[in-house]
Amino acid sequence: MKSDVILKGFSIVNLSDMISELEEDRVKDILLDFCCPINKDVENFLRYKAIEFSKQSLAKTHLIFCSYKSKLVLAAYFSLSNKFIQIEREALSKTLRKRITKFGSYDQNIKKYIISAPLIAQLGKNFKYKELNLISGDELLKIACNKISSIQSDLGGKIVYLECEDVPKLKQFYIDNGFVEFAKRPLDRDEKDDLSGDYLIQMVKYLG
Predict the structure, then answer these.
(1) Most CB atoms closer than 10 Å: which of 38, 54, 61, 81?
(2) pTM for the complete prediction?
(3) Is 33 helix (H, G, I), strand (E, B) or coil?
(4) How far is the first Cα of the chain from the last one, in angstroms, to the nearest whole number?
(5) Domains in the chain, ordered, with CATH?
(6) What is the pLDDT along the chain (208 residues), one digit of tens a residue?
């Protein structure tokens, strides 16, 4: 099965490639091995939505495998999509504004930057192997950002975007990894079953 090695010790497999090489029932069994009790949205997406989203090219999921007792186990995953985002000028530092103008445009009518950017739609570790510390959150996020940088080296762009719940520890994790908060988005109706609160924090990073 084709895989990329973006950080030493990890194998990254595109779910679409896995679907084309294995029977779909086998792929579903692999995905059901993933659990994330602290975020049911992350767990439910991989278990029940990721295959269909990959087939329709709505979001592409990448599985991260690590070696454990001479076999590969599913340690984490991330899903990528492409979105247009709107960012108010005041939400960004002067330096970030200058960088962003190269990859988007400023709409004078709505007073916002409009940018097409990759969205890290889902990001999660497999808690089934939590005690083994197969991968850290920093490593997982770095792998996702490295993948985006690799894609952008062919297509252009330097911006990555994500959304997270308004949880201080989670927000600080992304800030420590170079992301900047720029807005809040109200939850869609179908998101309220798996997510807490009424909105998601929107964050952006320049991949220098």
Answers:
(1) 61
(2) 0.90
(3) coil
(4) 31
(5) 11-206 (3.40.630.30)
(6) 555 545 567 899 999 999 999 999 999 999 999 999 989 999 999 999 999 999 999 999 999 999 888 888 999 999 999 999 999 999 999 999 999 889 999 999 999 999 999 999 999 999 998 888 899 999 999 999 999 999 999 999 999 999 999 999 999 999 999 999 999 999 988 888 777 788 999 999 999 8
Contact 107, 85 (CB under 8 A): no
Distance CA 51, CA 105 (A): 34
Burial grade of 133 (CB within 10 A; 0-12, 13-18, 19 or more): exposed
Confirm if 86 and 113 have CB atoms less than 8 A apart.
Answer: yes
DSSP annotation of 4: B
Distance, CA of 144 to CA of 177 (rounded, Å) = 12
- 3-state SS, residue 136: coil
Question: In this structure, which amino acid lies at residue 94?
Answer: K
Helix (H, G, I), strand (E, B) or coil at 203: strand
Q: What whole-number distance in Å separates Cα of residue 170 and Cα of residue 137?
A: 10
Name the token pair of 98. 């200058």
Tallying the residues shown for the chain, one arrives at: 208
